Amino acid sequence: MKESNKDQYLLKSLDSALTVLQLFEGGQALSLGQVVQRSGMNRTVVFRILYTLEQRGFLFLEEDGRYAPGVRLAALGAGVVPDDAARRTAGPLLRELSASVNETVHFSKRLDSRRVILLDEILPRQTLVVLTPKYESRPMHLCSTGLAVLAAGDDAAVREYAQGAELEKKTETSIASADRLLETVEQVRRDGYAVNDQFFETGVCSIAVPVPARQGGALYAVSVSGPSQRIRDKQETIVAELRSVCRRLAEKLT
């Protein structure tokens, strides 16, 4: 078949979008003007392509107005979602949540079958806040994000965790038995959110909601943390805000 005949099957709008995507292969962030200049395409067309790709999660719009590779583009290229792309994508919503509830917000990811790792922490304007080192990992049963992710999984994974985890007692209220862990997971499933009231540290409470994945389960979770009494006093508001944020994150991350 002649090359000219093959061109009749070329979908020009898709070809233009792929041309734009190829400009981000090196992982750099580009402004609208830079994309127009490098692609040689009409500015309006380029803007519509960038807007569509950003809305679908293939690109991320940074605060300075530049576009950078998003989680879905990274997933297509590497088979996994890099943590920095997920953190960039979640950042605006996490900051919005922290400002709304005026508490510390944590964004965590399932590290393996037993632990979650902290990807980002947003601090509020409170004088008394909870500080957690970034990238610290914790057993799922000792943190609200871990419990939220665990409860979103299937029964077999929960039973395996309960039977194999070292249920160490960090405080008087820590989950220290398999039976209590299973009961807690069932409570999380009924409520749709996890509460860690002083399981890891005395006086500290956190509430978490999982970010649902398209294929089921959850890879990410978001929590709000602070002094136990303060968090409990506004638990209803925190849960509503978390649910809203996690629904929006699911559209961008999964």
TrEMBL record:
UniProt keyword list: DNA-binding, Transcription, Transcription regulation
GO molecular function: DNA binding; DNA-binding transcription factor activity
InterPro entries according to UniProt: GAF-like_dom_sf, HTH_MetabolicPath_Reg, Tscrpt_reg_IclR_C, Tscrpt_reg_IclR_N, WH-like_DNA-bd_sf, WH_DNA-bd_sf
Keyword Isomerase applies: no
Ranges for domain IclR-ED: 72-254
Residue ranges constituting the HTH iclR-type domain according to the UniProt record: 11-71
Biological-process GO terms, alphabetical: negative regulation of DNA-templated transcription
PANTHER family on file: HELIX-TURN-HELIX TRANSCRIPTIONAL REGULATOR, ICLR FAMILY, HTH-TYPE TRANSCRIPTIONAL REPRESSOR ALLR
Protein name, as recorded: IclR family transcriptional regulator
Lineage of the species this protein comes from: Bacteria, Bacillati, Bacillota, Clostridia, Eubacteriales
